[in-house]
Design goal:
heterodimer, A: 276 residues, MetI-like fold, 11 helices, 0% strand, B: Rossmann fold, six-stranded mixed beta sheet
Chain lengths: 276, 244
């Protein structure tokens, strides 16, 4: 009766009831879990000490501005690495796709390159290039850890990004390339105007995930010198004998990476909808 | 312009798809290829456009053997347009960009210089108000007409049509066949692989019946459709003309 007054069909009323019910259950169970954590965790014998050394509000407030400042260096390294990675990654992907026998060395190079840099941990590349090349005794500024740390990140990430581009290129159906060729377009023009624009669009969500990973891996450069957020947090840790700066650093990363992750997921979901 | 196929042969692995096809096409002639699926119609068209390399035989276009494997296919493809069953428009470009891409890149013409000719083509085939649409905003029949315009914009001397109405809803077939009729009136040289028997009968100058990679019968449509000489032609026609 009341449903009829609300102007709902029987089905709509039923679905509304279902929705209310599941909202209630989800809210209830979430609340139960949060309460359990809030009440049970402090019962642990070491809680006092953990709270003191990881969640110290005073230390948090004191270190936050300087850590945020150090994070700007992460952002800067990220900002100049990302376009270089996109360009080198695309170049390597195209090199692996060449069919002209004269250019075979290029193709071979692309294959060897992606195999090597996908097979070595990022931190090792950062160490080897970041310490190794300045060790050659290069004059300033060519011994800068910023340059060689960036090179290490660009080399590693380009290998992954190239593979994603290549999967995108291969996902464009052969009939598109044939249609372009049949119009008299050259192989290069077919790639540039027909295949690549479609391929790049398809891999944008996957590349977004690479960007997020890159943003986090910038912290690895701390091992070779630059005082970015992770290293700055380490300095504070030693200074204050407290781990809270690491938590601050984690929070600052999350502020950037969580929205970026959401955006990537949104793009992927939209693409899946468009395809089905 | 004259096209002559001489003993064209093509295999995919152990399968002989084209088993010695010879065919002369005169300027302005419309030749229809009919035959069961897998008889080699599509492969023959793709070979003429050099999308598939021949195994053996020759294709003469104005006295030049375009099947010569060492030849650069690009300038030859510009002279031979092809339209596919599945349209194959470029989905990331509007209809007019689809049409202008090849003339711009290959003939190095500007959009402004191309605009009058391209607009006239869209206008003529009833798509003047669809030039700025993307392929997924167009019906199948409209997409196929754009594909035909795209091929025509390269000013080909001969057009190949590979079952261009087979992927269309029945009510959209007519608008595409109208375009073919108009092209024939222009004097365009055309080779069609088709399942549209009524169209072949009414419009074609000549019909070739393919079976297992060979032309088993050819002649004017009146003869092939009403008095086929070959038993296999009769069997094929009775299958397609009287659907169960």
């Amino acid at each position: 009766m009341s449903d009829a007054r609300a102007g709902l069909t029987r089905r709509q009323a039923h679905e509304r009831d279902l929705r209310r019910r599941s909202l209630l259950i989800a809210g209830g169970s979430t609340l139960a879990v949060i309460l359990a954590i809030v009440f049970l965790v402090p019962l642990a014998p070491g809680w006092e000490r953990v709270q003191q050394s990881f969640f110290n509000a005073e230390v948090f407030a004191r270190t936050f501005p300087k850590l945020l400042n150090a994070f700007l260096l992460d952002v800067a390294i990220f900002a100049w690495s990302a376009p270089l990675i996109a360009a080198l990654g695309l170049a390597v992907a195209l090199a692996r796709d060449v069919r002209n026998p004269v250019l075979y060395p290029l193709r071979l190079f692309g294959t060897v390159y992606t195999d090597i840099f996908r097979g070595v941990p990022v931190v090792l590349v950062v160490y080897l290039i970041g310490f190794g090349i300045p060790g050659l005794g290069l004059p300033r500024p060519w011994n800068s850890p910023y340059i060689w740390g960036t090179v290490a990140l660009v080399l590693t990430y380009s290998a992954y990004v190239a593979e994603i581009f290549r999967s995108g290129i291969e996902s464009v159906h052969q009939s598109q390339r044939n249609a372009a060729l049949s119009l008299g377009l050259s192989g290069g023009d077919s790639m540039r105007y027909v295949v690549l624009p479609q391929a790049i669009r398809r891999v944008i969500p996957a590349q977004m995930n690479m960007l997020i990973a890159l943003q986090k891996d910038v912290a690895l450069l701390s091992f070779i010198g630059p005082v970015e957020i992770f290293r700055q947090a380490g300095v504070f840790k030693s200074l204050l004998a407290n781990f809270t700066p690491y938590v601050v650093a984690a929070c600052i990363f999350l502020v950037i990476t969580v929205p970026a992750t959401r955006l990537a997921d949104h793009l992927i979901a939209r693409q899946n909808r468009a395809r089905s | 312009m004259k096209l002559r196929l001489d003993n064209v042969q093509k295999s995919f692995g152990a399968t002989r798809v084209l088993d010695g096809i010879s065919l002369d096409v005169a300027k302005g002639e419309m030749v229809c290829l009919i035959g069961a699926s897998g008889s080699g119609k599509s492969t023959l068209l793709r070979c003429i456009n050099l999308l598939e390399p021949l195994d053996d035989g020759a294709i003469w276009l104005d006295g030049e053997d375009i099947a010569e494997p060492a030849l650069d296919p690009q300038p030859i493809r510009q002279r031979i347009g092809i339209v596919f069953q599945s349209f194959n428009l470029f989905p990331h470009m509007t209809a007019v960009e689809n049409v202008m891409l090849a003339p711009r890149r290959v003939r190095k013409e500007t959009r402004e210089a191309l605009r009058p000719e391209v607009t006239a083509l869209f206008d003529r085939f009833g798509l003047a108000d669809r030039m700025g649409h993307y392929p997924d905003q167009l019906s199948g029949g409209q997409q196929q007409r754009v594909a035909i315009i795209r091929a025509l914009a390269m000013r080909p001397e001969i057009m190949l049509f590979d079952e261009i109405t087979s992927a269309l809803d029945p009510e959209l077939v007519g608008e595409v066949l109208q375009v073919l009729k108009a092209l024939k009136e222009d004097g365009m040289t055309m080779i069609l692989a088709t399942h549209e028997m009524a169209f072949a009968r009414d419009v074609a100058d000549r019909v070739c019946v393919l079976d297992h990679g060979r032309i088993i019968e050819e002649g004017p449509p009146a003869q092939v459709f009403t008095a086929p000489r070959e038993a296999r032609t009769r069997a094929f026609l009775s299958r397609v003309l009287q659907p169960v």
